[in-house]
């Protein structure tokens, strides 16, 4: 690849001290919607109301991409685009409601709320007069939900430190969180920002910015800004990207703290990896630096919130390959209460620069389903393919709930070892991995000899993944970076089938209306029947979107949204229209 795209959103892949706010919030600038529910969703197909808005990555804080809708197309044609002008020719398009221009590289997943569609991209389309297309920016764009018309844009200028913190041509890779008339997101510059979803179309400037160039209708109306680099000492690797989650008045953010350009030195080991903030003011409530000096590369996962075992928990995937669960509240004395932690890598796995090793970090977002936590390990896509692991975790246990513990053999005794960045257990040094009696593993999937031929084939292997699982009716789907879509039993981890898409998958599956949708780097979207039957392991259709699909399909208000690198497509049945 010429440039270095990092996250699907999916995903790519964000207090101890009260934070200083660069801009103060006005009293009237508070969100006017109820907090997103954090209780576990039904595990089977119960009668549910159709999904309306899709206000965050994963739809709600459980992060399971399973909206409720009917009459979602399984066939469409995007039409054609003029090579010289870029204009859309809709004469041969089918089931396309509208098309909107994005930049040249788009990884942010669409979010739909308050009659608008929000998506992260770069500035190659030059939608604002003051920022022509040759000016590199991280861009969050707002479109009209019904027409696809451009409304406003938030522009993040590139950091002067360059690619170590803000990689060229990588726009906004996260999805925003929207609640009522407010939107929160993490910029590529390492900031948490709160915006007015109406922009300046409501005739009001809700933030402190009075410069005329910031109050034109197509500009974003910024309420407050918190700079994690200057206020918390964070040094993100290549880019900052986290799709925020919230509970009540609390925002939860992964800071993206990581290594420098050497890929060895961690410039800010004391900086926090996870923070909680007041959504109305931007005040930092607590911080945590649990991954500490063991961060492998970067930290681009997003938090998940759920009530599990009667306790509200916020789940963070750290850049050291561990999952951390904290009590989802305001903490005490600037610190959160750690409930449990889980190492997603085998203890003998080893981190090697450039992706040549077997130890992984976590870029995927944890998903909660039926009171269980599901998460896969992986690496920056630029590191290529490698072995992966998918875990199903019991979140009611406490303490270190990893599968194994690292021990040093000293005579007849075993002494616990602290976690190490490169390799937790070095057998030649007399170290061993022993089963953890407090393990929270419900099941583990890495692949196996499913056909009994005495070997584990490519199709029988779980590879590195930056994708997030989607689960419906106890059927789990996950894509890996080697291009396989895996279909498993969500309760047991038993493999039903795999399908080779023949191209890397950056995004995550969508399950809706009895079907599964997944895009790949070749630009194909495969549509499958929602089924555990191996006879249904072939897609019922495979539709090309014109160029790479790095993001995850979503559905809101009965419309399917898919972004490729350069355009956002609103897809709906023409009969419905």
From TrEMBL:
Tell me the ranges covered by the Pyrrolo-quinoline quinone repeat domain, including all copies: 429-528
**UniProt superkingdom:** Bacteria
Put simply, this protein is called Serine/threonine protein kinase related protein-like
- UniProt GO MF annotations: protein serine/threonine kinase activity
The lineage, from the top, is:
Bacteria, Pseudomonadati, Planctomycetota, Planctomycetia, Pirellulales
Which keywords, in A-to-Z order, does the entry hold? Kinase, Serine/threonine-protein kinase, Signal, Transferase
Annotated signal sequence range: 1-33
Residue ranges of the region described as Disordered: 36-60
